[in-house]
Amino acid sequence: MLAEIGDNKTRFADARGSKAYAGALPITRASGKRSGITRRWVKNNRLNHVGCLTAFSSITASPGAKAHYRRRRDDHGDWHAAAQRNNLFNRMLGQPYHCLQHHTLFQPALAAAARRRSRLPCCSSHREGERVTEPITGWIWGRNLRALLELLSRYSGYAFDETDWETIAASVQDADDEAPDGWYSYPLVGTSVALEVSLAQAVGGEEVSVSIAGAETPELRLRADTLLSAFASH
Fold it and tell me: Which secondary structure element, helix H or strand E, spans residue 36, and what is its range?
């Protein structure tokens, strides 16, 4: 894989560039009310083939890779090919890119720990003695992100407008749920409650990981959890 990617750290603008070069990022096409996701035909075939074989063998040889594969199958409902090729292969391409950019050696244990931290961002602040509850976490389809934010804003009493959406939409494009610091947080401070929503784009997929902090009441937590479940299903 390194022989095909090369050691020039300026070759790709970001990790997504190297993943597209390897054919690990699918192509999304939309026209009117229809949209579709197809495989990337223009790619480095040698890198694509060796990467898929490496991802396949790592499921049994690497505990971290196996855990990631099972998470995609069990938590996200991915088929075998999607979990292995579109997600595990994607992650394996992002790791050498990170190491080349920061001149560090790859450490499997550290990479697995970083993955766990990126799934549960710490996005709530509190004063001593103040009641704290765990953030509500999950994932939704990217097409439902605006609807989720608008409903959360309504529940909190925040006047969500076009400026908010444009800011979030532009920032989420650069978010990456494979990176420990790849999440983007946006406050929804309303008249009744202050929420903080953290978002991260799933690498190689249309999903957006979501963490909602500040939902203290059982009613609000139930509403937020219901929204995540609904927007992950449709």
Answer: strand 34-38
* pTM listed for this prediction: 0.49
Residue 195 contacts residue 215 (beta carbons within 8 Å): yes
Burial readout 207-234 (b: 16 or more C-beta within 10 A, e: otherwise): bbbbbbbbbbeeebeebbeebbeebbee
Phi then psi for residue 184, to 5 deg, are: -115, 130
CA-to-CA distance for 133 and 114, rounded, in angstroms?
A: 23
Residue whose tokens read 């704290």: 132
Helix count (H) and strand count (E) of the chain? 10, 6
Tokens of 228: 């995540």
d(CA 144, CA 146): 6
> How many CB atoms lie under 10 A from the CB of residue 147?
13
Task: Give the model's confidence band at 7: pLDDT under 50 very low, under 70 low, under 90 confident, else very high.
Answer: confident
Reported as a single tens digit per residue, the pLDDT across 129-157 is 445 568 888 888 888 999 999 999 999 99
